[in-house]
Specification:
The complex is a heterodimer of chains A (about 450) and B (about 210). By secondary structure, chain A is α/β, with parallel strands linked by helices. Helices cover about 30% and strands about 25% of the residues of chain A. In chain A, the strands form four sheets. In chain A, strands 1, 2, 10, 11, 12, 13 and 19 form a seven-stranded mixed sheet that branches. In chain A, strands 8-7-15-16-17-14-18 form a seven-stranded mixed sheet, with helices on both faces. A three-stranded antiparallel sheet of chain A has the order 5-9-6. In chain A, a hairpin with a 2-residue loop joins strand 12 (about 265-270) and strand 13 (about 275-280). In chain A, helix 1 packs across helix 12 (about 410-425). Chain B contains five helices and six strands. Chain B has helices spanning about 20-30, 95-100, 100-110, 135-145, 165-185; strands at about 10-15, 45-55, 55-65, 85-90, 115-120, 150-155. In chain B, strands 2-3-1-4-5-6 form a six-stranded mixed sheet, sandwiched between helices. In chain B, strand 5 (about 115-120), helix 4 (about 135-145) and strand 6 form a beta-alpha-beta unit. The longest helix of chain B is centred in the C-terminal third of the chain and has 23 residues, at about 165-185. Chain B is globular, with a radius of gyration of 18 Å. The two termini of chain B are about 15 Å apart. The chains are: A alpha/beta (about 450), B alpha/beta (about 210). Chain B: Belongs to the small GTPase superfamily. Rab family. Chain B: It holds the Pfam family Ras. Chain B: InterPro entries: P-loop_NTPase, Rab_GTPases_membrane_traffic, Small_GTP-bd, Small_GTPase. Chain B: This is Ras-related protein Rab-19. Chain B: It comes from Bactrocera dorsalis (Oriental fruit fly).
Chain lengths: ~450, ~210
């Protein structure tokens, strides 16, 4: 440990592992430390099942749920958008070769106490029971507009300036009613609240395109999920970092972040060992005095022995409950994965309900989500602070990631990673340089 | 599965730091040997494919190296996933590396329960005069593990003795083991790898492995 490194990364959560991998690949000498004995931190998938029960101080279930080590239960539920940033990062770095994926079978949205399939193309729009006859046609026209829309070709904008006019104006242009706006903004564009309505429409159009492009890639739904759980993702990036010379230390407590002149980091101390470095990348738990609380997220892990009702017995599902449907300011997300992803014993399912906390009774807030999953064999609830760094880290050279938010996909995770990478290295991470040979070498 | 593809088998190297896993990897990759562990020569390389012919069957052996993660931390559990074979490596001049095999074995049966397990005593050239690990001890270990160990080998990466023979034999055993399994697997729905080349491939059976 007593060496000098370009960068020391603290914590092996997904964000830190991606950063560690990107830094090692770009030739930096990296030391990656975790205080836990296992990889993944908050992004780990807990195995065996007994471990999960222990974590929540619940008595061990015995044989009830099959073999314990067939379970890999995520603490933070998320899916990958098939055409999203994380998939691009996986391809760029070659980490995709360590993982196998399955498509999530269904994508649903909640309306008036029931769930309905999220319509994404013209055919589905016309068949959907989310809208009345005339509304369907208006929605179809809207989808066609979005599909044909090209940001660099003003002719496709059709007398509408998406960089100046806001999204509400675009909805009004097509005469879409509040209900349609609701599922478009929350289930297609995946916004967490309604602030997007007052922002330029271009961003929303981009996000709807991401949804439909992702859907076009593997069918069924725009979401992917890795076999053996999300914990495989940080491990894949950790391996990448190691392969490129990164050094790993687990079960190593960090006692002090050593600062030098002008408050700039010069190393970390563990016991009487000091590792020197020019930069630190870490999650909020390693620097409690450099982060502030932005809000709270509630997540409920549910063990079930059945699929969600009215999803055609899908073995994996995402359901979005738009805020307005249940009188809230932020959406509730419900996700379901199962034994088919090697995250549960045969015949079992893992459901998750999560949202941003808005009241002092968060458990009541997720009730509409839990109702969809009933009957539930076992529940585990966590309420965690959503932390963000108090500064951009340039002065101290300590770059801190934000906590994982309530969204059920990795787009915001990647934006944070790319932003940290840019602050730390002074360079943008260039997606256009995706290394195609990485995909080819397996052939 | 209409296309005829050579079945690929992931085989992982396991064992203590310094027993010669990367040397075996290097022999497998380009049949070279470097005395001082010069990590740079495998930097950025983590697995390599080679084809073997067993009777009328072809098999692609994909050998994976640990990337040195075991030096101070543990190897990620994802390293073991999807492995069809695992080679437990110890150094014949280092009794401690033999005694820790049981720990590595435990990891393998935990994370890659279907993998065929092999034992490889490496550095046989150094152990010629005074072997620190006797054949009887290896035999006794295999007995303790009941039928978990498929075969044992002795190799020297320095002289290349036994290395090629080992990989050939492992290929043979994997082909035998997989004959029936592959037919079974073809019936199941597969997961897939994300691949930039397969982009926009609207093949309806996209759930197949497209790696």
């Amino acid at each position: 440990m007593n060496e000098e490194y370009d960068a020391i990364v603290l914590g092996t959560g997904l964000k830190e592992c991606i950063l560690s991998g990107m830094l090692s690949v770009s030739g930096k000498k990296v030391l990656h430390i975790d205080r836990n004995k296992y990889y993944g931190g908050e992004s780990a998938s807990i195995t065996p099942l007994e471990e999960l029960f222990q974590r929540f101080n619940v008595e061990s279930p015995g044989e009830k749920y099959g073999r314990g080590r067939d379970w890999n239960v995520d603490l933070i539920p998320k899916f990958l958008m098939a055409n999203g940033q994380l998939v691009k990062l996986l391809i760029h770095t070659g980490v995709t070769r360590y993982l196998e994926f399955k498509s999530i079978e269904g994508s649903y949205v909640y309306k008036g106490g029931k769930i309905a399939k999220v319509p994404v193309d013209q055919k589905e729009a016309l068949a959907s029971d989310l809208m009345g006859m005339f509304e369907k046609r208006r929605f179809r026209n809207f989808l066609v507009y979005v599909q044909d829309f090209k940001e660099d070709d003003p002719k496709t904008w059709k007398d509408f300036d998406p960089s100046k006019s806001n999204m509400q104006a675009l909805y009004d242009k097509f005469g879409l009613d509040k209900n349609t706006q609701d599922f478009t903004g929350h289930a297609l564009a995946l916004f967490r609240d309604d602030e997007y309505l007052n922002e330029p429409a271009a961003n929303t159009i981009r996000r709807i395109k991401l949804y439909s492009d992702s859907l076009a890639r593997y069918g069924k739904s725009p979401y992917l999920y890795p076999m053996y759980g999300l914990g495989e993702l940080p491990q894949g990036f950790a391996r990448l970092s190691a392969i490129y010379g990164g050094t790993y230390m687990l079960d190593k407590p960090i006692d002090e972040i050593v600062l030098g002149e002008g408050g700039k980091v010069v190393g970390v101390r563990s016991g009487d060992e000091v590792a020197k470095c020019k930069q630190i990348y870490c999650d909020p738990s390693y620097v409690p005095d450099r982060v502030r609380k932005k809000g709270k997220v509630i997540r409920c892990i549910c063990i079930l022995d059945h699929p969600v009702a009215n999803t055609k017995d899908a073995l994996s599902t995402q359901i979005i409950i738009p805020q307005k449907q249940v009188g809230r300011k932020s959406d509730i997300y419900v996700s379901l994965v199962s034994y088919t992803h090697q995250v549960a014993a045969k015949g079992w399912f893992v459901g998750m309900v999560s949202t941003t906390v808005e009241s002092d009774q968060p458990e009541n807030e997720i009730k509409p989500g839990l109702d969809l999953l009933e009957p539930i064999a076992q529940k585990f609830i966590t309420i965690s602070d959503y932390l963000e760094p108090i500064d951009n880290g340039i002065d101290s050279q300590i770059f801190i990631s934000e906590s994982y938010d309530a969204t059920t996909h990795f787009e915001t995770t990647c934006l944070d990673v790319l932003d940290i990478f840019k602050r730390g290295t002074g360079e943008d991470f260039d997606f256009s340089k995706i290394k195609h040979e990485l995909g080819d070498e397996d052939q | 599965m209409a296309t005829v593809r050579i079945p690929k088998q992931k085989v992982i190297l396991c064992g203590d730091y310094g027993v010669g896993k990367s040397s075996l990897f290097r022999r497998f990759t380009n049949n070279t040997f470097v005395t001082d562990t010069d990590r740079k020569s495998t930097l950025g390389l983590d697995h390599i494919d080679r084809d073997y012919t067993v009777g009328d069957k072809q098999i692609k052996l994909q050998l994976w190296d640990t990337g040195g993660m075991e030096r101070v931390a543990s190897v990620t559990s994802s390293y073991y996933k999807f492995a069809e074979g695992a080679i437990l490596v110890f150094a014949m001049d280092n009794a401690a590396s033999f005694h820790s095999l049981s720990q590595h074995l435990l990891d393998i049966v935990t994370y890659a329960e279907n993998a065929k397990i092999f034992i490889c005593g490496n550095k046989s050239d150094l152990a010629e005069r005074e072997p620190q690990v006797s054949d009887a001890e290896v035999e006794a270990f295999c007995e303790q593990c009941h039928s978990l160990i498929s075969a044992t080998y002795k190799t020297s990466c320095k002289t290349s003795d036994g290395v090629e023979e080992m990989f050939r034999d492992i290929s043979r055993i994997l082909v035998d083991a997989n004959r029936s399994k592959m037919e079974l697997q073809a019936l199941e729905q597969h997961s897939f790898k994300i691949d930039s080349a397969a982009e926009a491939d609207t093949n309806e059976e996209s759930s197949q492995c497209i790696c």
